[in-house]
Design goal:
By secondary structure, the protein is an alpha+beta fold. It has a single domain, classed as Outer membrane efflux proteins (OEP), CATH 1.20.1600.10. It is 66% helix and 13% strand. Strand 7 and strand 8 form a beta hairpin. It is elongated. The relative contact order is 0.14.
Length: 456
């Protein structure tokens, strides 16, 4: 934060304290919600906005990159399985040198059958013609696994995005709480100045003066604790952005309307979550993959029809034909292999039962997550409405008690209690606003919305 910005904040604080009555209350009640700035590139200037930071986190996150590599590995596995649907072509070549020339014995006669040194080569082609969809099912299963990995990447992106959004709002909340703490110190310093003046003319006791000093010291300690919390949250945000932990963090919030969540239907939100949540789609794709695996393994009990062709050449001056062509149409069946295929089939079937139970559990967890996020959002919105009125009342209460104290009608304790009450009200107001923002993001996440599209 540069000196110009600090100076402007100081002037704003003085102007804030000078506002009387209802005008002062209205300005204070709107303060946490009116930080409207244009988007700034976080990577270039160090000023972080929610859309820019979210794009950077989702693009550069190590977790996302690891998940993308899993996706690419699954795609490569799929292409490996696809190769079984295509012909197999092999070729070989060689040169042979024998110590003794091959010779046949015909009674008293001996006749060479081959050259002692000769070259040879061959080309073979083989293609499965029909295997009861065994290889095709394996390929389709591999594509289901690839799609499951893709949804895994979507899930990781949304999870990383939610973590960034919560961290971003944590820093904004800390900034606002630091300002609240500073205003409390300014109010206590003003009260201390009044108390010193009244004590100087003998209108109050030493106890009132000491009480004001102790409260001021306590407020300064709370400001230090709030600044430390802000530094920790800023470091967490830097970590998500892959920046040095000690790098200066300046966050700027864009205007977003506070929407009453009353119109949200829990049942519709559940349906939307079950349709869009990538975690559920991962399980569904995995179940589809297992069904295709079962089809492929059942086909192992049935015969395979294959065709092959080959061309072979062997240098031999003692043979009439040195090369030859061959065409093969064959049938292959697995008669016995110790029960391996049957056990593998049973394993896949048990795995399907397990996944179905996991899916049911996941559905319940997703519904609970959606309901909790929506309730948190509703609770935070209601607290915003209550806190806004409370802040206005606390400010008016402080103004009245100060006036009473200045004319020696009220007590110092009443003024200090009014300052504390105002600080608590402003703190609750700030926290309710950012609790709403974080609950709003959690609701989007729980219902399966793409956070990058929502916060574009």
């Amino acid at each position: 934060m540069n000196w110009r910005y600090q100076h402007l904040l100081g002037l704003a604080g003085i102007f804030w304290m000078a506002l009387p009555g209802q005008a002062f209350a209205e300005a204070a009640s709107q303060q946490p919600e009116t930080r409207i700035v244009a988007p700034v590139d976080a990577a270039m200037s160090g000023v972080i906005t929610l859309p820019a930071g979210l794009r950077k986190v989702i693009t550069d996150s190590r977790d996302v990159k690891v998940s993308i590599q899993d996706e690419l590995i699954a795609d490569a596995d799929s292409r490996m399985v696809r190769s079984r649907l295509l012909p197999t072509v092999t070729a070989s070549a060689g040169y042979t040198s024998l110590a003794n020339q091959p010779t046949a014995i015909f009674g008293a006669l001996q006749a060479p059958t081959s050259d002692r040194n000769y070259s040879s080569f061959s080309v073979n082609v083989e293609q499965i013609l029909f295997d009861f969809r065994a290889n095709l099912s394996r390929y389709e299963s591999s594509r289901m696994q690839f799609e499951a990995k893709h949804f895994g990447t979507v899930s990781v992106r949304n999870s990383v995005g939610l973590g960034f959004i919560v961290s971003f709002y944590d820093v904004l909340e800390s900034d606002q709480l630091v300002e609240v703490a500073k205003r409390e110190i300014e109010q206590l310093e003003s009260h201390l100045k009044d108390a010193q003046g009244l004590f100087g003319v003998g209108l109050i006791t030493k106890n009132d003066l000491l009480q004001a000093q102790v409260r001021l010291s306590d407020a300064r300690q709370r400001l230090l604790a709030t600044k430390n919390l802000r530094a920790i949250r800023a470091s967490r945000l830097n970590n998500l952005l892959l920046r040095p932990l000690s790098a200066q963090v300046t966050v700027q919030e864009e205007s977003r309307e506070l929407v009453a969540p009353d119109a949200l239907s829990l049942e519709k939100s559940w349906d939307r979550a079950l349709e869009k949540r990538p975690e559920i789609q991962i399980v569904d794709k995995t179940l589809a993959s297992i069904d295709l695996d079962v089809t492929a393994k059942k086909a192992e009990f049935l015969p395979k029809v294959f065709a092959g062709g080959s061309y072979a050449y062997q240098q031999n001056s003692y043979q009439l034909y040195q090369d030859n062509w061959a065409v093969i149409l064959g049938l292959q069946i697995n008669l016995f292999e110790g029960g391996r295929t049957l056990a593998d089939l049973q394993k896949s079937q048990e795995r399907k039962v397990q996944l179905l139970e996991q899916r049911n559990k996941l559905v319940d967890e997703v519904k609970l997550q959606v309901q909790q996020a929506m309730l948190n959002m509703q609770d935070a919105y209601e607290r915003i409405q209550v806190a806004r009125d409370t802040v206005e009342q606390a400010q008016e209460n402080l103004r009245i008690n100060r006036k009473r104290y200045e004319v020696s009608v009220g007590t110092a304790t009443e003024v200090l209690d009014a300052v504390t009450l105002l600080t608590v009200s402003e703190t609750n107001h700030v926290r309710s606003i950012y609790d709403y923002r974080k609950a709003e993001a959690a609701t989007y996440y729980a219902t399966g919305e793409d956070l990058l599209a929502v916060y574009r």
